[in-house]
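W.,

You were right to be curious about this one. When I first looked at the sequence I had no strong expectations either way, so I just let the prediction run and decided to look at it fresh. Below is the sequence, 299 residues in total, followed by the output.
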Amino acid sequence: MQTSVFPSVRALDQLLDGLGVGAARRRQLDMVRGELERALDRGALPIGARRSLQRLLEEETLAPYVRLAESGTLRHRQVAGGFPPTSETTNEIRRTCLDLLRKALGLLALHLGGGEIPLQPAPEAATLSALARQLDRYLAGTMSPAQTRLTALLALELDTAARSGELVGLRTTHLGKDYAAVYIERRPQGGGAIEREWVETSALSRAALARWMDVRRGFVQRAHGTSKLWVSLWMNHDGVFDNQGNTTIRPPGMPLEENGLITSYRVGRLRYDGLRQLLPLKLEALRRAVDAERRRTAV
């Protein structure tokens, strides 16, 4: 990220770097950071907010910022040829991030939002067991590279209850001998100490990882190597667009980004037989179900 011309945004960057939040929350905070900088650049916020981080996060600054952001005016690129209003989910995330930043600076939360976003229903224990059986059936047959990757991903999720950002950060060096364990760095979404642990894997995960590693090897060799566990299977782009809308093209076999991992979950849920009935709409809902079951059985 380039250094901002505004002292308050430079101070915000330092604050963000010290929060220690999870990858998903950091992306949300970076969205807010970008919007605030664009609002300052347009002269839409009080002059004092350019110099002071505290002034930037005061209510008299944030109120007009929130109105502009929700209108879509502060989007960094067009959507369908325009700048439409942001969704209610994005609006609530934005407000939550603002309270998180104010709290980190020692200020009181403003509670600009309308309440917590309702959680998606999570699968029950019986559904998780049925999912494991379905994945085992996949392993008994022929699978495409994408199905092989998703099967390994879901099997590991059933063992670890890892967040998407924690999964995408995995490297081959985080796998134990014969894939009998996996090293997870748990990063709380709201910040806090990182928890590190080795999690014993199931026979399902060990078999799924063995299949995926065979597939992965060919893709990584063509892309000149990476230690990231999850790699792309098709040509894509790096997600960074210039002013003309151009971006850098990435070949197959490159490290899979978190958005790509989540997309593979959503597409696979609809594409592969049996998954639509077993998987919730979002990977996070599956994670919560697995985490709840792990806690229940640990008691």
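Here's what jumped out at me. The first helix runs from residue 7 to 17. And, maybe more interesting for your project: The mean pLDDT is 88.

Coffee later to discuss?

I.
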